[in-house]
């Protein structure tokens, strides 16, 4: 084999940062040494791995084919090195991208469990909407994602973690708050503040309304759940949010969960990863401990 682990590490870092100069900084190499290692690798393999568009580097077909295989070799090399230094196999850093509900209500407890039982495993966390989480996993930016609802991308593997449900909320002063039940016609007449397009909560809500209400009066859209809660608490709006994000406010009487008997808004929280990704004991450890945590909390699986 004529290529080296160093060349593969340079390739992976350029693929991740999409820039030779950024890759050089991250690897503590000179830019010329980084460029030379990449050019030597392309010459040895006989294929261009990147399309160079100004300072931006985009993977070619061959670069996309090579990336998961290069990551496998680099990961195996890391495990060999750690093994000879008597380090636990569950050690190193894993990058996770998660939606807001999971990040706020489930991941803090999971991270505490990991810190206690696997102190050499470090979790790098990003909090995004569901579509961006899928993008991060698909584009190799994260090894593990957590989303609400389904992902239909054939490149993504999906495993259900647990279930939750959405609720429609109103201020305690809203006219609907006093009703025993609310009809679809009344929902259609209301003003709504909702999560942005691409959010798992928004996708689940629109799926539940599909074929029932076609033209909802969406007044505002925001990424931040706290903004939506405050708008509903202080204004004439309705919103649809995960129960975990509003239960404390409902219990304090600040918000009211409306009863819409015909509306089913149960959904899943799922782990996702690239279907062609390498075996990863860090990812497997996270999934295993997460499932155990849900069972211990007696939440619905």
Task: Explain what this protein looks like in three dimensions.
- By secondary structure, this protein is of the alpha/beta class.
- The protein folds into three domains: 80 residues, Winged helix-like DNA-binding domain superfamily/Winged helix DNA-binding domain (Arc Repressor Mutant, subunit A, Orthogonal Bundle); 99 residues, 3-Layer(aba) Sandwich (D-Maltodextrin-Binding Protein, domain 2); 105 residues, D-Maltodextrin-Binding Protein, domain 2.
- The protein contains twelve helices and eleven strands.
- The strands form two sheets. Strands 3, 4, 5, 6, 7, 8, 9, 10 and 11 form a nine-stranded mixed β-sheet that branches. Strands 1-2 form a two-stranded antiparallel ribbon.
- Helix 1 packs across helix 2, helix 1 packs across helix 3 and helix 6 packs across helix 12.
- The chain is elongated.
Q: Can you give keywords for this protein?
A:
single chain, 301 residues, alpha/beta, Arc Repressor Mutant, subunit A, D-Maltodextrin-Binding Protein, domain 2, 3 domains, 9-stranded mixed sheet, two-stranded antiparallel sheet, 11 strands, 24% strand, elongated
């Amino acid at each position: 084999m004529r290529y080296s682990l160093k060349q593969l590490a340079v390739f992976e870092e350029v693929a991740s940062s999409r820039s030779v100069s950024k890759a050089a900084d991250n690897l503590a190499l000179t830019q010329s040494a980084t460029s030379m290692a990449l050019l030597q690798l392309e010459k040895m393999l006989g294929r261009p791995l990147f399309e160079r568009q100004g300072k931006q580097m985009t993977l070619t077909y061959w670069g996309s084919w090579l990336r998961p295989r290069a990551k496998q070799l680099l990961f195996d090399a890391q495990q060999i090195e750690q093994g000879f230094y008597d380090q636990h196999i569950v050690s190193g850093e894993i990058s996770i991208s998660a939606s807001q509900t999971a990040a706020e209500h489930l991941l803090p407890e999971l991270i505490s469990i990991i810190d206690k039982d696997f102190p050499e495993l470090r979790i790098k966390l990003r909090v995004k909407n569901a579509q961006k989480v899928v993008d991060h996993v698909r584009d190799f930016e994260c090894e593990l994602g957590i989303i609400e609802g389904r992902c239909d991308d054939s490149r993504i593997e999906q495993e259900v973690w647990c279930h939750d449900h959405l609720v429609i909320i109103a201020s305690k002063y809203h006219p609907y708050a006093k009703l025993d039940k609310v009809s679809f016609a009344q929902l259609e007449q209301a003003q709504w503040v909702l999560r942005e397009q691409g959010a798992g909560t928004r996708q689940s809500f629109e799926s539940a309304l599909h074929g029932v209400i076609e033209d909802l009066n969406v007044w505002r859209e925001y990424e931040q759940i706290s903004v939506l809660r405050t708008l509903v608490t202080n204004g004439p709006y309705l919103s649809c949010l995960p129960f975990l994000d509003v239960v404390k406010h409902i219990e304090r009487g600040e918000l009211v969960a409306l009863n819409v008997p015909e509306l089913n808004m149960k959904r899943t929280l799922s782990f996702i990863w690239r279907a062609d990704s390498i075996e990863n004991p860090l990812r497997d450890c996270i999934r295993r401990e997460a499932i155990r945590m849900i069972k211990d909390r007696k939440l619905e699986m």
